[in-house]
Amino acid sequence: MSKLVGGCDDEDELAKLHSASRDWGFFQVWLIKYHVKIQVINHGVPDKVILKMKADIQEFFSRPLQEKMECAQLPSDIQGYGQAFVVSVEQKLDWGDMLYILAQPQDVRNMRFWPRVPSSFRATLIQYSIELEKLKGILLSSMARNLGLEPEKLLTLFEEGVQGVRMNYYPPCKQASKVIGISPHTDVVGLTLLTQVNEVQGLQIKKDGKWIPVDPVPGAFIVNVGDVIEIMSNGEYKSIEHRVVVNPEKERLSIAAFHNSNRNAVIGPLPDILSKEQKKRAPNYKSISYQEFLKLGQKATLEGKEKGLAHHLKIETEAAQ
């Protein structure tokens, strides 16, 4: 990452970021070496902020259930302590608990869902969310250059976008093959930045029809392209299906920060990409408003669709043609 900030624009590093975003859609970025996923170390987020966030979320999940329920989800609201994607009393639930909070910008915060214990939690999450906003900007700027865009063209679309932070706890299960931590899905956002709280493997991505485990690198952020970036790039970057499996012996904790475009953005292929290099390209996706996109995402969740909105918008466009 140090080669992508401060105006460095290292061509070799930009090419590696471009390849990972295009061919995998999931990457971890770190300083020294690269695998098929790029892990970000030297990402600029202070270690003390990350370590404090990890410590506070571990303490929260270790508290008695009665205390955690003070932040419980309310009907028709995903924020709070509970489980995600519960749409029916008859469905098989994911094997995990979560605490989901809207952290940025300030006007979306509902402090009713923010834990009071540990006492440092609120200040820690605010600082952590601010640092991730900076990292998001660096990544989007580099992606824009790789796509042949002026960085501001992409950054403006995500300025003041909602950042939701999902903190996950997956208890061990002796019959791990019979449960799933998070069911297969893609992320209905622009970018996701994931921190492993402990070094227990569980995240898997689907590539060429096979599930591939992601080995966490200590101190790194796992980044994945969401549906919004796939659509805006007209399919050049991919939003990849992923899931979480459960360990039979060890608990797993993680923190995922989801970064959305702003509420005035149009979700569709960017005009500058469609006309790149003076070549007129046909859009592969339908353009819709941010509000329409949110409604479509809610509908897809209720219907249990796994492949994400980029996939379904593309199918609808082809069907219309």
UniProtKB/TrEMBL annotation:
List keywords of the entry alphabetically.
Iron, Metal-binding, Oxidoreductase, Vitamin C
Do you know which Gene3D superfamilies this protein is assigned to? B-lactam Antibiotic, Isopenicillin N Synthase, Chain
Origin organism is: Linum tenue
Q: What is this protein called?
A: Fe2OG dioxygenase domain-containing protein
Entry similarity comment: Belongs to the iron/ascorbate-dependent oxidoreductase family.
Q: Any keyword Protease?
A: no
For the Fe2OG dioxygenase domain, which residue ranges apply?
Answer: 161-261
Q: Name the InterPro entries for this protein.
A: DIOX_N (IPR026992), IPNS-like_FE2OG_OXY (IPR044861), IPNS-like_sf (IPR027443), Oxoglu/Fe-dep_dioxygenase_dom (IPR005123), Plant_2OG-oxidoreductases (IPR050295)
Entries under Pfam families matching the protein: 2OG-FeII_Oxy, DIOX_N
What PROSITE patterns does this protein's entry cite? FE2OG_OXY
Q: Which residues form a coiled coil?
A: none
MF terms in GO:
L-ascorbic acid binding; metal ion binding; oxidoreductase activity
